[in-house]
Design goal:
Shape: globular
Strand content: 25-35%
Radius of gyration: 18 Å
Order of helices and strands: HHHHEEEEHHEEEEE
Structural class: alpha+beta
Largest sheet: 5 strands, antiparallel
Number of strands: 9
Number of helices: 6
């Protein structure tokens, strides 16, 4: 792997870790057993639909992540990015100005940005789309990865995620991923989980041993 691809791999892995650092375990605590009730699923679908509408509008009309910040905070944010930091912010999509309630569930919606110096868009995509190698690039958080099918800019991918803290979570997931070109210097990917499950539907609580 050349130096540019190494920089892309290192920074995108930091981005993944920053998102995984968000409090995801509370969803496990909020859900009942291993099933998802219809009311919860319907609210989740409603949130996804509203979020996709918001994202589509932002892609075509803005704003960017920092456009609404005061000038000094915006300058500080760009300085942090140039220093290699990953900036993550929680997002709460609204429907007609009102929060979207999810009964018996909790949605974590995050947006993040990172800066990869001295790497082209082509080099970045070469790493991001190398799905068979994600298990090496993003280990140990990605324990297994496989490109199942590719048709142009459409990918079918299997990923096994692993996260261990007080609770160990292993998730096997299939994804449909589509890449869309915006002009000559911007690409957007849309990733949809088509199957997601925890092996044996168990999250193992790791107790500290004295």
């Amino acid at each position: 792997m050349n130096h540019a691809k190494q920089r892309v791999a290192a920074q995108t892995r930091r981005f993944l870790l920053a998102l995984l650092a968000a409090p995801t375990c509370s969803f496990v605590a909020a859900s009942r057993g291993c099933g998802t009730e219809r009311e919860t699923a319907a609210a989740f679908d409603h949130y996804i639909g509203a979020s996709e509408g918001r994202i589509k509008s932002e892609l075509h009309n803005g704003p960017s992540l920092f456009d609404e910040l005061p000038e000094k905070r915006r300058r500080d944010a760009y300085a942090q990015l140039r220093e290699g930091q990953v900036l993550v912010k929680q997002v709460n999509t609204r429907a007609e100005g009102h929060p979207i309630e999810v009964p018996q569930g909790l949605i974590h919606d995050w947006i993040g940005v990172l800066f990869i110096p001295n790497a082209s868009l082509v080099q970045t995509l070469a790493v991001v789309q190398d799905y068979d190698n994600h298990q090496n690039i993003y280990k140990p958080e990605v324990r297994n990865s496989k490109l199942l099918q590719r048709n142009g800019d459409n990918f079918k991918v299997f990923l096994q995620f692993y996260k261990k803290s007080l609770v160990t979570v292993v998730i096997n997931a299939d994804f449909d991923i589509n890449y869309e070109q915006f002009g000559t210097n911007r690409v957007v990917s849309h990733s949809y989980s088509t199957r997601s499950l925890k092996p044996d539907c168990v999250c193992a609580l790791q107790r500290k041993r004295r």
